[in-house]
Amino acid sequence: MFSTSCHYGLQGILHIAFYHEEDRNIDLKQIASEQNIPKHFLSKILQILVKKNLLISTKGPSGGFRLKREPDQISLIEIIDAIDGMDVFTKCGIGFKQCNDENPCPIHEEYKKVRNQVMLFFQDKTLAELVEDSKQGKSIINLNMA
Fold this sequence. Notes:
146 residues, Arc Repressor Mutant, subunit A, 48% helix
């Protein structure tokens, strides 16, 4: 449903949110290495999130990335919108360009319901919830992190 860029963006910002309480910048190399994401590709994606006011980027020896707002104030839909846009929640499930309410494809109505549920899920879910679940051992962010 989402692009590779969006997946990497979600993984990268979640990694940064995991260390938010430490009140420090997270190095691009660390994120790329621990998330197994190509560094140059991740850099471009994180710069998009900086431009969309979700992250702060600092240069220099202690530079890196940090969240611009508290993790409980950043929903996953904001990250998706910043990278892929909201079109992902209106596209045809089969990929027909002309599919819409007036000209539905064979799965249009059912897929529209599922797509809307997914959108609501991402609107309601915050970075803080994902980090908390991970820290409590209910889920993993990746297998390399503490």
